[in-house]
Amino acid sequence: MKIQSVLRAIRNADRDFDLIGDGDKIAVALSGGKDSMLLFVALGMYQKFKGKNFELCGIHVDVGFEDFEHEKMKAFAKQHGLTLYIEKTRIFEILQKEQNLHRGKIQCSLCSTLKKGVLFEKAKALGCNKIALGHHGDDAVETLFLNMIHGSKVATFLPKQYMSRMDMDMIRPLVYLKESEIVGVVEENGIPSVRRVCPNDGFTQRQEMKEFLDKLYAAYPMAHDNFITALSNTKQIHLWQNAKKEKK
Ligand SMILES: Nc1ncnc2c1ncn2[C@@H]1O[C@H](COP(=O)(O)OP(=O)(O)OP(=O)(O)O)[C@@H](O)[C@H]1O
Questions:
Q1: Is it true that domain 3-233 has CATH number 3.40.50.10260?
Q2: How far is the CA of 115 from the centre of ligand 1 (A)?
Q3: Which of 19, 20, 62, 81 has CB 3.0 to 4.6 Å from 171, enough for a Cys bridge?
Q4: Which residue, judged by its Cα, is nearest atom 7 of ligand 1?
């Protein structure tokens, strides 16, 4: 896939979900992974589209892992003329505390909450009104299945979500892309990603779900596009109306 196709996918998501407006100041949440690195450069290019007047910067929350390749990330931002802020934290130290461990493992949910707090605060301090995350279509489908399995709910994250507590929108401009398309485009365009250093990496429920869905797509290839399309097919939702439960 060419970078132009990524820009088209971003433009379509922007049009369909009203992601980016005139005068926005957007902070890309940069993990260093392929998705957010691609999002950062692609939004830098999208700024040059006609009628797109918004400011852009990147924020990386440094969790405190040893061996994280900050220099690679900084060099990448510099090469593309993008402004990057790195927020140093002691999140990893907090995660490793005995009382915060779950069955001897650090908790992804706590890590995510702490990172989000730092991210929002920095974005607010910089005067940003939107935070852009690197989630894509496959992430949305995985979230849907994880919510059904573990939370008895048919729900996934939204392409645009207003966070009232912080008075800030979270936007996900890559929702129309699949992970395989992102892998292709970052390879073709030499977009780097940092080495993964989180000890939980590869051992999460999300990773299991990814592997489960890959098997399902191998058996039913059409399911891949259909699942993503189904997420916005709101006219065709048929769920049970339980009058007694709804009264509660
Ligand atoms: N340390 C961080 N600092 C800033 N943003 C982050 C950080 N970690 C995650 N994010 C944001 O949250 C999104 C989802 O997080 P997740 O942990 O799934 O990302 P990842 O798979 O490690 O990397 P990526 O999605 O960038 O390939 C990222 O795309 C990024 O926008």
A1: no
A2: 10
A3: 19
A4: 31
